[in-house]
Amino acid sequence: MSEFTLQFNLDNYHQLDEYALLSCQAYNFGNDSDWFGSFRGGLYGSYARIHGLCSHYHAVHAWMPKPRLPSETEYHLASLFFNMDSFIECITYALNAFGYCASGNTMFRDVTCAKGLRRISPCDILGRPNANPPQSYLAEYDTYFPEVRKYWESKSNLINMIFEQHDVSKHRETIFVGGKCRTTTPPGFFESIGIGPNNASQKALFWPMEEIIIQKDPKIPKKDRTSQPVEGQILLESLVPEFQEFAEKTGELALSDAKTNIKLKVTAFKKA
């Protein structure tokens, strides 16, 4: 398997979904507010974002029998950061819904009204420490999802980097600043598409990326940016595996938190 083919372990999320489904049964919390619909919508949204991340990460690195457009790397890069950012948003949405149910519909953001839904944000878990004045996270996360909250706080640098890169690529400008192409082709690749061994300029049009350099501090003015020394460069190929670890660990901790802090009257599905 290619080193650029990602495979996420989602087993903990599947188990969390099953626990939430058990929670919404009438003999446990019930589902009068349709909190479970919000939970599953957020969870399935996160699955879609992981699929998008894997797809774009593979595509920007894969050998394909068509020339690369000049804008292609930027397209994939912006899409990667959208999917990572949106995964974090979707998981927050799902956890908020579960917490809303478990807390008796009095804590967390209200999933039954538009105003409550608009207010759901990863800042509910992380707070806004750099705001003026600083804003704290929702204390309810310390009651229901404490390990998730502490873990996210420990990964705040990664999360904020993803948010910044997505903001810039979505609202401002390109974020692709350089990198290195793959030049070692699979056996018979160019022969299969009719390009001879001495046609170097034509071959270069097909090169996928091997390393993509991420711009540090992308929101600062260009005149204030400095060149990045090689030892200080941030590579997409390091950041994405770190995000994969973050996503998988979040699932593990969310499941553990839910089973520890969201107690059920009936702990197994009743037979129909």
- The largest sheet has its strands arranged as 1-2-3
Helix content: 40-55%
Element order: H for helix, E for strand: HHHHHHHHEHHEEH
Distance between the termini: 44 Å
Q: Tell me the total number of β-strands.
A: 3
The residue ranges in which pLDDT falls below 50 over 5 or more consecutive positions are none
| Largest sheet entry | 3 strands, antiparallel
Count of domain modules: 1
Structural class: mainly alpha
Dominant shape:
globular
Number of helices: 11
Which strand-content bin applies to the residues? 5-15%
Please tell me how large the radius of gyration is.
22 Å
- Give the rounded overall mean pLDDT: 93
Protein architecture, described:
- It is a single chain.
- The protein has one domain (about 10-260).
- It starts with 10 loop residues before the first helix and ends in an 11-residue tail after the last helix.
- A 3-stranded antiparallel beta sheet has the order 1-2-3.
- The protein has helices spanning about 10-25, 35-60, 70-100, 115-120, 125, 140-145, 145-155, 155-170, 190, 200-205, 235-260; strands spanning about 175-180, 210-215, 235.
- Helix content is about 55%, strand content about 5%.
- It is globular, with a radius of gyration of 22 Å.
- The chain contains 11 helices and 3 strands.
- The protein has about 270 residues and is mainly α.
